[in-house]
Amino acid sequence: MNTPGPALWQPEFDIEHRPDGTIVMAQKGVVTPLANSIPERLVHWAKVAPDRIYLGQRDASGEWRTMRYSQVLTQVRQIGAGLLSLGLGPDKPLLVLSGNDIEHALIGLAAQYVGVPYAPISTAYSLVSSDHAKLRDIASLLKPGAVFVADGAAYGKAIAAIASPDLAVIATENLAEGQIDFKTLSRTLDTDTADAAFAKLTPDTVAKYLFTSGSTGSPKAVINTQHMLTSNQDMIADCFRFLADHPPVVCEWAPWNHTAGGNKTFNMVLYNGGTFYIDEGKPTPAGFATSLRNLADVRPTWHFNVPLGYEMLVRALEADADLAKSFFSRMDMMMYAGAGMAQHTWDQLKALSKQATGREVLLVTALGATETGPFALMGTDHQPRSGNVGVPACGVTLKLVPNEGKLEARLKSPSITPGYFGAPQATADALDDEGFYMLGDALRPADPDDLTKGFFFDGRTAENFKLRTGTWVAVGALRAKLVDHFDGLLRDAVIVGEDQPFLGAIVLADMDELRKIAKGDTLAALMQNPDVRTALQTSLNSLAATATGSANKIKRMLVMMDAPSLDKGEVTDKGSINQRAVIRNRPELIQAIYDGGAGVFEAT
Fold it and tell me: What is the pTM (predicted TM-score) of this model?
């Protein structure tokens, strides 16, 4: 039996069942608004807890460099005045091309403090892309007045790709000629203009532009107003009641150009007077040791990660009992998002937390989007299985519309974006005739007789297709089942078979897991090993044995031998696979699956 956990909401619902099968569901009651803007909370905490550490990051020597709330506010006011002196304003936003660091946090908050929209951009668009096409599209759309980078040299090609006579370039180090030193900007003495601009902020002031992944074309700029962000944080505070007297301590790597890291977690820490330690590690073989060192030092009270990060964390915690005890010692709850979590990872995390602390730390997931703030549906109950995305937050109305045998999710909320910048048709197309934002996701009730038990993600409605027999295939659920069944051997998969007689899959193998079976420096070498091929074949056979019909039986499988392309939209900058883009760009792989032969695995 679990000991009492952190204080959470106890929601009650109004639920309407319409004659056409549509369901409308919303919590009773209202949330308490805490602020009219995100910078308002910085001012609040600088007054209430001026000496509390707000931001932390390791310096070049490996020691923690920290800034307290009062120091951050002072810097934000100075930088904000500096941005205004460069001519930035509502129509001349700030682009941030580099990743998470203290300077990024300061300049982003400063822009918001003085009413300058700020747009954090995926570093992949600058450092990975070979043609900078998406970055040029973004600059052409927003027409920024300035761009900030951590390193003027490292981002030199990206800056050149969007350069214009009116674009100021601000850099922290390795400045090129004509670039503005961030240190100079942050030493502005006259802050009266910044404070005057702060006093003029309204709920409708644009705080930032966040870009969708652009997996099907140019990224869309999602408008984030101050009201959108604060109402979302009010919902979070209503859900996680413990934050009121237990400010969160976070150590996180999730990039701030994504709504999960840049809105949900970053703003949650500030809104509730917490402490944010920037983790410069990542869930990669090269970067995860850094994350483990940071987590051991910080001992966070809240942890967010993608499922891959949790898989790597489980391995480390199982190998180091002291690390496990340290990691879980202050943990209020853990959350994952971005993809489905394998059941074995879910079970291991819960078991490890209980072994380390004597209690089962709450592990949850949620559902939202860049357009929703993102907080929309949240799970807060202990669950026996992964995947329950919970129930709508207070203030969110969930509409479930029958669509090809599934329930398509649509949302109405004060934290829904007012639209896409410069794209009125896309904005109109995103809403139904009742003004609900159409997520494009299907949901399945955990208990059809009691919707308050939450929902499971049931796939992207745009990904589903029919076999030649006319049978609908639920791609999202099948892809999750496939990856989970292979128990770590696969990172992701693309389900194929539209207008074909049977289903196939293009899969991405996890080389680290395959190397536990055999030695090999490359994927090609590993795939030649008979033990590796036997392991994959055995898993495919046992998966096929669980199928109940053609709509969930994967008959053939092919391993993708090269990495999916960011520039071609096959993978988003957060690493998730775009089903449609891979199918569109790689017809030869689909042809190989249906031709059969060398390299293709076939279920027996």
Answer: 0.84
User: What's the pLDDT tens digit per position in 221-240?
Assistant: 999 999 999 999 999 999 99
User: What is the DSSP code string of 342-406?
Assistant: PHHHHHHHHHHHHHHHSS--EEEEEEE-GGG-SEEEE--S--SSTTEEEEEPTT-EEEEEEETTE
Structure tokens at 192: 């009266």
Contacts of 419 (CB under 8 A, 6+ apart): 223, 426, 427, 430
User: What span, in angstroms and rounded, lies between the C-alpha atoms of 172 and 148?
Assistant: 8
Q: Is the peptide bond before 255 cis (omega within 30 degrees of 0)?
A: no
Own/partner long-range contacts of 197-200 (Cβ < 8 Å, ≥24 apart): 197/80, 197/84, 197/113, 197/114, 197/115, 198/39, 198/43, 198/77, 198/80, 198/113, 198/114, 198/115, 200/115
Instruction: Among 166, 201, 236, give the residue marking a domain's end.
Output: 201
Q: Model confidence at 574, in pLDDT bands (50, 70, 90)?
A: low
Would you say residue 266 lies in a domain? no
Place of tokens 């020597």: 61
What is the domain-level CATH number for residue 520? 3.30.300.30
Q: What region does 187 belong to: left with phi over 0, alpha with psi -120 to 50, or beta?
A: alpha
Instruction: Give, for 277, the enclosing helix (H) or strand (E).
Output: strand 275-278
> Which is nearest to 28 in space by CA: 459, 452, 523?
452
Distance CA 262, CA 274 (A): 15
- The number of distinct structural domains making up the chain is 2
Whether 235 maps to a domain, the answer reads no
Nearest to 209 by CA among 194, 222, 225, 197: 222
Is residue 575 scored above 70 in pLDDT? no
Token pair of 198 as six digits: 């702060």
Q: Count other C-beta atoms under 10 Å from residue 202's C-beta.
A: 11
Closest of 242, 182, 255 to residue 362, by C-alpha: 242
Domain that holds residue 159: 65-201
Identify the CATH number of the domain in which residue 138 sits: 3.40.50.980
- In 53-196, where do the E strands start and end? 53-58, 64-68, 94-96, 118-120, 146-151, 168-173, 180-181
Instruction: Tell me the average pLDDT of the chain.
Output: 93
pLDDT-derived band at 332, boundaries 50, 70, 90: very high
Q: Which two tokens stand for residue 448?
A: 């059809």
Q: Tell me if 139 is assigned to some domain.
A: yes
pLDDT digits (tens, 9 = 90+) for 263-316: 999 999 999 999 999 999 988 888 999 999 999 999 999 999 988 899 999 999
Angle at the Cα of 69 from the Cα atoms of 63 and 71, rounded to 5 degrees = 75
Are β-strands 388-392 and 455-460 bridged in parallel, bridged antiparallel, or unpaired?
antiparallel
The phi, psi pair for 102, rounded to 5°, reads -60, -40
pLDDT digits (tens, 9 = 90+) for 20-68: 999 999 999 999 999 999 999 999 999 999 999 999 999 999 999 999 9
What are the structure tokens assigned to 38, written together? Answer: 């995100």
Quick one: how far is CA 68 from the chain centroid? 27
Domain-embedded: residue 101: yes
102-113 and 69-85 are packed helices; what angle lies between their axes, rounded to 10 degrees?
60
Q: Which residue, 179, 201, 223, sits at the end of a domain?
A: 201
Residue of 578, 568, 565, 563 whose CA lies nearest to 510: 563
- With contact defined as beta carbons under 8 Å apart, do 52 and 99 qualify? no
Picking from 371, 324, 332, 369, the residue whose alpha carbon sits closest to that of residue 349 is 324
Residue holding tokens 């934290």? 415
pLDDT level of residue 362 (50, 70, 90 thresholds): very high
